[in-house]
Amino acid sequence: MRIVLDAMGGDHAPHEPVKGAVRAAKMYGSNVVLVGDEAQIRAELKQYDTRGLNLMVVHAPEQIEMDEHPAQAIRRKSRSSHVIGLKLVQEGVADAFVSAGHSGASMAGALFILGRLPQIERPALATILPSLHDRPMLLLDVGANTDCKPEYLAQFAQMGSIYAERTLGIPTPRIGLLANGEESTKGNRLVQEAHLLLRESNLNFIGNAEPKDLLVNDVCDVVVCDGFVGNLVLKMGEATVSLAAKRGALELRRSFLPRLLLGVAPIAALALQPGPGRWRTLIGAAVGGTGMAGIMLYPLWRLRRVTDYRVYGGAPLLGVKGVVIIAHGRSDAVAVASAIRRAQEAVEVQIVTTISEAVSAGAVTT
Amino acid sequence: MRIVLDAMGGDHAPHEPVKGAVRAAKMYGSNVVLVGDEAQIRAELKQYDTRGLNLMVVHAPEQIEMDEHPAQAIRRKSRSSHVIGLKLVQEGVADAFVSAGHSGASMAGALFILGRLPQIERPALATILPSLHDRPMLLLDVGANTDCKPEYLAQFAQMGSIYAERTLGIPTPRIGLLANGEESTKGNRLVQEAHLLLRESNLNFIGNAEPKDLLVNDVCDVVVCDGFVGNLVLKMGEATVSLAAKRGALELRRSFLPRLLLGVAPIAALALQPGPGRWRTLIGAAVGGTGMAGIMLYPLWRLRRVTDYRVYGGAPLLGVKGVVIIAHGRSDAVAVASAIRRAQEAVEVQIVTTISEAVSAGAVTT
Hints:
The structure is a homodimer.
Chain A: E1 3-6, H1 15-28, E2 31-36, H2 38-45, E3 54-59, H3 70-76, H4 81-90, E4 96-99, H5 103-114, E5 124-129, E6 137-140, H6 150-167, E7 175-178, H7 189-200, E8 205-209, H8 211-215, E9 222-224, H9 227-272, H10 279-306, E10 315-318, E11 323-326, H11 333-348, H12 351-360
Parallel strand pairs in A: 1-2, 1-4, 2-3, 4-11, 6-9, 7-8, 7-9
Antiparallel strand pairs in A: 5-6, 5-10, 10-11
């Protein structure tokens, strides 16, 4: 099995993608084809001991920049890492394509070069969300289709159900429909019509799911929505975490010094008092303070880890003729390696064939 | 000026609404008409010293329950606190209606009983969001209209601009359009078309706004979206805060005891060592630990206060012939009192007449 990695994609390319490829080759035994500027990739590779690792380099002289129009860039830049990488998958030379670069270009490229699966109306981008319980929660579509028909959402549910079952190991996944209330009368017209389709399907449909059902309650495994709403909801979650972190840091900065002085004053008064063993006050204060800081910081550190996008790897684009994993633009080597592993898992369980067969069998008619 | 308060609305009615009315009468000199079950309201009022306060009770024998269909309930329950309260405003006996009860019924009732302002296509529910900088950020629509046309969004922008200018004191408010990217090509069809309308309007339109622009960046004062998306985004913010709080508490519980023992061990070892002044170790540790806990907990407490929905009072329903403030169902007395104050401010600046005149002047043609 060969995984194509867009070595030029992401905010820290080619350094982090190349490092991630080395990491995946070492940790998961991955066979990675690095596509991009050969000289740059080889210069990066020299920093690591790559003996015995399955790493190949394929030269691509062009790159798609973040401000380019996705479809136009794919058409014009036939020698870009996106186009050359996806063609390797299309020709059967490789089995999956992973990129942390221009996500619109990855989706457009997947559509033009690999093509849609027969009977799939629209491919969908799926992502795993952090949740209170430690089970993965799959949300799709998070950005491939800004305007959807009810039938698309029903197909997203079907693809998501298969993906959750096969790669996340969830038997008969519980499917929710993202809405602003549990009642079937809630939601906009699209959601109300999709609700009826899903209720008639043979999926394990549990009804409408609210944002708290995505993150806090353990009521569903897969939640579907249109790509505009999914992308906004995802970004709102990120923005809220960012607000809390920044605001917390601001408050800490504002209050740290006066409070530190408040704490230091009694300790100093105590330590300066004459009498034997006054150093004990200081040691006691240092140990007590450090211990308490550890007790309070550890859960915050764990919280950061739990909401860390890196451990979830990339987002699979479901419904195209090939495995395509879109990683976060900010991906570091750890994130790139876990996106490569996600691609391997999807290839192993033959996700493309499975989705194609299930949809052909007509679980949801459109 | 008289403010009608639905004394039967909210999770803690009539206790908290009545307490909130007393608080508003004392703190803001409000003149409040409590509508609901007279016996229950009077029993609650007896708990407070209400001499000299402007509090009136109007009996309403029916209530609208949370699971009722909004429009049907308004039509059927003509003796409910919603209908009787809104009629007091419609007849000019009172100037504003405040409710923490069934929000759908409040909106439907406002439409049926007060009616839309001429030339307003759809009223919109506006809410103030917490943000990193301490300036208020107005988001609308957050739930009145699940399916919108581009013209509605343009009118929401106009109403929001006037509200922000008049009641929040922001001169020529910066208007954003909620989308999943800054570029004007981002967003679904509705957003793209609304973008063109807003660009042609005489509003201070700054372009598309992403969720991070709502919460973290100080780039706009008013952001518009359809009510389905607005409601979801709001709920996603709440769910993320809830996830972080619950997860943080879980991690703290998991790690507190083992870490406390880790901290206690060296202190105990030190304190048990023979020698003079060993009590100093303990006092030092206690002071140091408490000081550090204070330093770390204070910003978290401040964070909670900043994201507290209560201080922002209720959400105004803009575009109807009267001032209507919809408070959170979980409102306590503090939240109810600040919703009453918000209603007073809106009446004082004659928000209804101002919106009506501005829209008639044709800032946005539909």
